[in-house]
TrEMBL record:
Full protein name: Pvc16 family protein
All copies of domain Pvc16 N-terminal, residue ranges: 10-162
Length: 165
């Protein structure tokens, strides 16, 4: 399994990509603070807008099952295919009122729909990450929020495909 700094860099790149959804001053919504852990998200005592970007599940991408098998380039050299991972993120919003929180989530979802690829411009080297929404039933969302010890609230779940060397 890759080291934690690889996953941390991916989370940092996804957070930077999300910040781009909130152009300064447009529609009266400034870029929210993006929190990558539950404590930072809930400990804010002021009315600042914030998004929770919580990495809650990591698993190998089954489409890359042969990742550890050698491959050959056209010249015959043996190459090693990089490992691919599926990272699941919970995205929730915190704001002074529920309507503003919904607006924050809507902008995040629209941005990730229009631009699902987190690329090299987001400081992850040559890797390209693909973000896809993950449908969850109400029971799955209740379970996810229950594991956090919190009542369910409006949120999004995205899966990011990442390759690590």
């Amino acid at each position: 399994m890759p080291s934690a700094p690889g996953f941390s860099a991916i989370s940092t790149a996804v957070a930077a990509h999300l910040r781009a959804a909130y152009p300064a001053g447009e529609d009266g919504i400034a870029a929210p603070t993006i929190c990558r852990d539950w404590h930072a998200f809930t400990s804010a005592t002021d009315e600042r807008d914030r998004l929770l970007l919580l990495l809650y599940h990591i698993e190998p991408d089954q489409a890359w099952r042969a990742a550890n098998l050698p491959a050959r380039d056209p010249a015959g050299a043996v190459l090693k295919t990089p490992a691919a991972w599926q990272l699941s993120y919970l995205i929730a919003a915190g704001a002074r009122d529920a309507l503003r929180a919904q607006d924050l989530l809507q902008l995040a979802a629209m941005h990730l729909h229009r631009d699902p690829v987190v690329g090299p411009r987001d400081a992850i080297g040559d890797r390209v990450l693909a973000c896809t929404p993950q449908p969850h039933s109400q029971e799955q969302m209740l379970s996810l929020w229950g594991n956090l010890g919190r009542p369910m609230q409006p949120s999004l779940v995205y899966r990011v495909l990442a390759t690590l060397d």
